[in-house]
Amino acid sequence: MQLQVKNEKMLLAGQWIDAERTFDVVNPENNQIIARVPKATKGDMLFAIEKANEAYHSGKSWSTHERIRVLNRVADYIEKDKERFAETIALEGSKTINEARAEVKRAIQTIQISAEEARRITGETINFDQNEGSENRVGYSYRFPVGVVGAITPFNDPLNLVAHKVGPAIAAGNAIIVKPASVTPLSALLLAEAFVESGLPAGLLSVLTGSGRELGEPLVSHPLVQMISFTGGLNAGKRIADQAGIKKINMELGSNSPVIVLDDADLHDAVKACVSGAFSAVGQNCIGVQRVYIQKGIYEQFLQAFVERTEELRVGEKLNELTDVGPLIDVKEAKRIDDWVNEAVDSGAVIQAGGTRDGAFYAPTVLTDVPATAKIAYEEVFGPVVLLYPVEDIFEAVQKSNAVNYGLQAGIFTSNINYAHFAIQHLHVGGVMVNDSSDYRIDAMPFGGVKGSGLGREGVRTAIEAMTEEKVVCFRLQQRIF
Predict the structure, then answer these.
(1) 163 and 136 Cβ atoms separated by less than 8 Å
(2) CA angle 32-102-104, nearest 5°?
(3) Residue 387 phi/psi, 5° resolution?
(4) Please, what is the end-to-end C-alpha distance for the chain in angstroms?
(5) Residue 274 known to be catalytic
(6) How many CB atoms lie within 10 A of CB 120?
(7) CA distance 343 to 337
(8) DSSP output for 201-236
């Protein structure tokens, strides 16, 4: 099917504008150009920052009820046109149409939760009289917005991960500038459209499309940008931390997520959840299952069932509702994953399923006997590959789960509450899912990791806390008032 190439505009300080330079957005399934978008310059970014700062200061009295109204209108706007949003996600990215629809639903919830949490940005009273000599003092603390937030977002959830930055920022009363992934900018522009049409004051949101190398440094290092919210890779996160200077930084930097399956688990349930967790969104998921540690007594049975279920997955066209797994975001990523798998095989790993590439498509792949020295064992694969290992007991499983420089989320399947609590206490991660794979999240929960998986937490309420500062107010009461 030949699609008409759309010429998109970007949102710069409340205005939809073109640019002298453009770049193509392609469907990774067939390399078909689906849109041309502006390629913003460093000057555009500096202008957006200045205008965001002006808009923030001119709108400091922007009331909570007005923020709530705009956010609710945005959620309604997306709901009324949700199929267009879903088709955009599927066309520009890797998700199947069913996965894209699920992302739109989550984005609506993220914006709705942002509206709800705007009501709950509260402080607390402070008992100053707990200190001797302060009996005549009373006071409280309250939260105020940081000002201008810079957001850099990835390709794998091109709508909802943008919503996770814009929704809390607006709920808290900030201005925000978004630099979306260059391969998937259209979903971010659609979200910007929803905010503009819902009455967001001009200047509080800019979405600039273009090169991260050209736009990233001025956004991250500018003194008027008071906070950076970044989702992406560890190496990029390190560069941002070096460039940012002294300002607030929230980072979600990926993972190599483990799941533990003990011999008292519901085997069928564990297999079903782990296959879904490993291969949904073609494995391009920061909390996707990458390593599974199975107790030896059930290892062979688990392996057989896991391979059988994996081979039932249908790889194909993203807009086909029967498709389970689509393409990687581009051929380069598919080739990288193929290289990693081949390196593991050369080191002794065994391919139990998959292991083949066709353009940007990579078959859901199951590996066993992968040595710890193979790159795919300790780095984030970010693709449809999962590693299965037998272990003696929970102690070995936890020790091996912790043996990488990532710690975002983990899962454990067991019917023993003591084993579950041991894992909760000793897994060095930001979240432990009991009788679920690592690939479980709701948009209201705190979300983030430790070690190389990032700094701080997302999730609407915790993001709002990060996007605000706390101020203490103390009154010294006069002994006489007349």
Answers:
(1) no
(2) 75
(3) -110, 130
(4) 83
(5) no
(6) 10
(7) 10
(8) PTTSEEE--S-HHHHHHHHHH-TTEEEEEEES-HHH
Per-residue confidence (pLDDT) for residue 391, from 0 to 100: 98
| Span 432-460, pLDDT tens digits | 999 999 999 999 999 999 999 999 999 99
User: b/e map of 425-464 (b: 16 or more CB within 10 Å)?
Assistant: eebbbbbbbbbbbbbbbebbeebbbebbbbbbbbbbbbbb
Query: From the centroid of its chain, how far is CA 285?
Result: 8
pLDDT digits (tens, 9 = 90+) for 255-274: 999 999 999 999 999 999 99
- Residue 4's pLDDT is 77
Find the angle CA(315)-CA(337)-CA(99) to the nearest 5 degrees: 40
Distance of alpha carbon 49 from alpha carbon 225, whole angstroms: 7
Could you say which of 92, 286, 458, 465 is catalytic?
286
Domains and CATH numbers, the chain: 6-253+453-471 (3.40.605.10), 257-434 (3.40.309.10)
Residues 6+ apart with CB under 8 A from 385: 278, 283, 290, 337, 340, 341, 354, 362, 365, 366, 367, 376
State what percent of residues in the chain have pLDDT above 90: 96
Q: What are phi and psi of 469, to 5 degrees?
A: -120, 155
Confirm whether 321 is a catalytic residue.
no
Write out pLDDT tens, residues 327-343.
999 999 999 999 999 99
One of 8, 99, 193, 252 is an active-site residue; which one?
252
Please report which helix (H) or strand (E) contains residue 46, including its range: helix 42-58
- Report the pLDDT value the prediction gives residue 61, as an integer from 0 to 100: 74
The three-point CA angle 277-281-282 to 5° equals 90
Residue 4: both structure tokens together: 């008409």
Q: Has residue 1 got a pLDDT over 50?
A: no
Q: State both tokens at 389.
A: 């290992």
The whole-angstrom separation of Cα 400 and Cα 245 is 35
C-alpha to C-alpha distances, 162 to 58, 136, 354, 392, nearest whole angstrom: 25, 47, 33, 42
